[in-house]
Design a protein that fits this description.
Number of strands: 12
Largest sheet: 7 strands, antiparallel
Strand content: 15-25%
Structural class: alpha/beta
Strand order of the largest sheet: 6-12-7-8-9-11-10
Radius of gyration: 29 Å
Distance between the termini: 72 Å
Length: about 375
Amino acid sequence: MAEIKLMIVEDADSDLEVCRTSVERYQTQKNNAGVDLFINLTECKTVDDALQKIDNSFDGAIIDLKFPSGDDKGKEVWEKIRDSFFRIPVIILTGTPGSIDVGDRPYLISVLKKGEADYQTDILDTFLDIYNTGLTRIIGGRGKIEQTLSEVFLKNLLPQLEKWKNYGQSDTQRTEKALLRFTLNHLVQVLDDDEDQCFPEEVYIYPPLSNGLKTGSIIKKKDGEGLRVILSPACDLVIRKDGNFKTDHILLVDIEEANAIIATVLNLNKITNKGKKENKLKLKNVFGNNYTDYFHWLPETDFFIGGFLNFRKITTCTKDDLADIYDLPHIQISPHFVKDIVSRFSSYYARQGQPDIDQTKIIGNYSAKKTEEST
């Protein structure tokens, strides 16, 4: 059963009744349609009550901004959710949606006009869709991450605690960062056991959590033309005390438009069933990075047009030139996928080959020998 825990912060009894009735009706409709759903609704008529009850266990909050005092008292609940790092989707109900500061909108799912918003389509459908992604269970501390963290704490960290205590005595900040990496490595190991296919969005970190240049950073020219990926080794991109990289030139690889590459590998003139099958096989090879050694596919998402890395089109530039020509990285390829790209790039340029050997006589002798053996 899907159990969605929602909070509504509303002082008016009539509006609370509308919400309560809508939830009951919505729940009945979903259950009749075969969706096993229960909505646990927590009603808060005062800001103080909401501030005491709010925590990470909620899957969403519906907040009315206006209270009898005339002030936007409901904003205090919203601000506590934001400032306390409660990872809860929030929908604001207000008679004046335009009064919400645009700069605050990233913390909200939506701002709806009170009295006009439809509870089913605008609110409950939204929270159910979010719940079905697993987001609130993962980020809210009730899902796989929390379970795995408890396991890592008990099985991996506590048995090694004395060693980590020694590290902490010499450098507490460095130890905390190392312990974070240590914990994340264990989390990744659990996820690596999952054989499910990835979604395109998992290939990237967007937006990047830092502006630093890293292996796999996708950068764009300031004139808007041309995308490239940084493929310098991570060790070369370490910043020294003087503010410079260990390398004096940064390695860049071009990203070519996907449609241009696909058009060159498909025989678009073939309209027979055989031709369609051939093109489908070619596309499978292209997107599986099996078509050629020097193309590497980067999938399209809502925030990235995608394309193909072309290992034959590489260039370098200095740190200063990079700052003058390119914007800061706006997308980062995630570590798992960067490793594969670097491996394929290295293999492409590490290939050696050998002179062709005249095989004609060898094949002839081998065939003659087999014929004699069979007789």
